[in-house]
Amino acid sequence: MREQTINGVFSLQIPDTFEPMTPEALQELSRNGSDAYQWGARDRENHVMMLALWKPYPSLIAWLSDPKSIAKRNEQLMRKVYGANEYRLLGFHSLQAGDEKAEGYAFSYKLKDITQVIQNFLIKDGKTVYAISCAGREENADADRAVFREVMESLRRL
Question: Could you tell me the fold of the domain covering 2-27+36-157?
Answer without folding.
Answer: Protein Transport Mog1p; Chain A (3.40.1000)
